[in-house]
Amino acid sequence: MQQLAIITTGGTIDKIYFDDKSDYKIGAPQISEILGQFGVAFDYEVHALMRKDSLHITDEDRQLILETVKALPQDRVLITHGTDSMVETARVLQIITDKTIVLTGALNPARFLGSDAVFNIGCAISAVQLLPAGVYVAMNGKIWDPLKVRKNRNANRFEQA
Amino acid sequence: MQQLAIITTGGTIDKIYFDDKSDYKIGAPQISEILGQFGVAFDYEVHALMRKDSLHITDEDRQLILETVKALPQDRVLITHGTDSMVETARVLQIITDKTIVLTGALNPARFLGSDAVFNIGCAISAVQLLPAGVYVAMNGKIWDPLKVRKNRNANRFEQA
Amino acid sequence: MQQLAIITTGGTIDKIYFDDKSDYKIGAPQISEILGQFGVAFDYEVHALMRKDSLHITDEDRQLILETVKALPQDRVLITHGTDSMVETARVLQIITDKTIVLTGALNPARFLGSDAVFNIGCAISAVQLLPAGVYVAMNGKIWDPLKVRKNRNANRFEQA
Amino acid sequence: MQQLAIITTGGTIDKIYFDDKSDYKIGAPQISEILGQFGVAFDYEVHALMRKDSLHITDEDRQLILETVKALPQDRVLITHGTDSMVETARVLQIITDKTIVLTGALNPARFLGSDAVFNIGCAISAVQLLPAGVYVAMNGKIWDPLKVRKNRNANRFEQA
To answer: Distance (Å, rounded) from C-alpha C82 to C-alpha C64?
Structure first.
């Protein structure tokens, strides 16, 4: 069994560009490529659960994420998720109290120059290994309690709620 | 007077990302940044004429581009343009017969890793300096006659018409 | 007073390229640019202490780093350092027992495509905020005890000693 | 037979990074990857002739390049070359008068953010297709006569000699 489970749900982090007409679509999980190229010194497995913009994640989707995390043998779980409803999903997951769960994502697509994706994944990778059981949001260089954070859409960043 | 005039009209080359809700928008002309960082050994001036996805360029917009090019003192003009209607605009410009006019753009935004923007601008920069008067499309590493090229939207490339 | 102090000492993370003759040189600290562009939600100050390849860091340099860290008012300190002698410097710093000190760096220059710099800084930023007092090395996605880690030069990665 | 022959000789364009101790080395030809990712609309073949920093290119190396170009069935040849002695090699090749030969390279390695490699290759690709027989240097956005150009090492750019 791998030490760490990673669940991907889509979101901006995985967006890739098509063309003038079709806009951006959500592609394969970028976290696999990112961790692959840095030779990380731990084992992990990636579950590509869904490919959704976070505005389209429904209550049923959140139940599916919840049940998936519960069923995992690992007690350390990293979830990549769109930023617009990441906090909402994190709160739903707080019913799980015996695993360390860290949600992260990106304000700009991973394949965009200057994207925050790699930085956020770095923050989340440390957090999921170091923190005790609980649910956390890793964005903008900080580890947040889901009950005390919100996305400020105008400033395009996470801040204390 | 500068040797080369550059007119920017928008298109994918200039797209920048906002967020989950607002999708991509067309930002400041990327060609200014691109030429700036490579220390090109010639003088040029950039006219940011419009910021439009090429699907939204109207007949009036094309007339504006035409009149603008005509009025320029330079006889070498590079135009960045969205790819979906680049060929159409090129054909309208063919009424001008005493200037060398090269249109280019990008199939992926300039700020995207692996974008063709810088390569295409390189091709266009040579072409606009080397070619005799006429209108040309510089895409996919070739210099095309506007009457003999089309964008293959499915393959996302330019090809012989 | 800022919450976090960052000390830069040089190393591959800060290498920039000059030309065929002069090879790579160590430039301005890349961590300032990196944290600047991601809008991190905490305060920090950067001390550019030296610009040395880690193979050229001497015992006196290590004493200077040690005295500088001791004298800082902050009790959380992130140090960027060349990878070849990062572990050695970390062990010297272990004399300090009342601060959380995390060392990181990069196996490839920050300005290189595919560099691990941003990922490592992300890991280190979480670690320095979450860990209790002590000295740690953040490389290859893990937080290491300086007494139990070494750089494997052939494989170009950090591993358990 | 392919339309275009590409000969690679090494130089900064192909430099890849190893580590603190071993500095940069010249890797596989970057032009293959670059042209591959942009879906260029013409056929070409790549001959990886040598992997040398241009300061180490000897008179014998230049004779080898000369004989190789002569022996090619193609009459359009693009050569990637280190910048420090590119002009010297170009002058040696001027003995060939029935082919269009364009030399290009990079002032910064192709794998470096902000490298001029892709831009220069774009310029050279147009030039080698558009120009009559002769030998040319494509650097800094211009097509130069080898007899009238030099590298200004302090300014790190090519300029009129």
So the answer is: 16
CA distance A49 to chain C (A): 23
| CA B155 vs CA A16, A18, D38: distances in Å | 16, 11, 12
CA atoms within 13 A on the CB side of D134: 13
At A47 the three-state DSSP class reads: strand
From residue A47, give the alpha-carbon distance in Å to each of A39, A66, A77, D145.
19, 13, 11, 57
pLDDT tens-digit series, residues D57-79: 999 999 999 999 999 999 999 99
Tokens, residue A160? 């204390």
Q: Which of D153, D157, D156 is nearest to D140 (CA)?
A: D157
D-chain CB neighbours of B103 within 8 Å are none
Average pLDDT over residues B134-146: 98
Domain interval for residue D89: 4-160
Structure confidence at residue B112 (pLDDT): 85
Residue of A9, A16, A18, A20 best to disrupt the B interface, most CBs of B under 10 A: A20
Cα angle for residues C137, C114, C126 (degrees, 5° grid): 35
Q: B121 and D120: CB-CB below 8 Å?
A: no
For residue C82, list chain D residues with Cβ-Cβ distance below 8 A. Answer: 20
Of C119, C158, C159, the CB nearest to A122: C119
CATH number (domain holding residue B70): 3.40.50.1170
C41 touches chain A (CB under 8 A): yes
Cβ–Cβ gap B19/A107 under 8 Å: yes
Residue C47 forms contact with A (CB below 8 Å): no
This model's pTM is above 0.90: no
Own/partner contacts of A143-147, CB < 8 Å, gap of 24 or more, are A143/A102, A143/C126, A143/C129, A143/C130, A146/A87, A146/A90, A146/A91, A146/A94, A146/A103, A147/A91
Contact status of C148 with chain A (Cβ, < 8 Å): no
Query: Would the pLDDT of D50 be above 80?
Result: yes
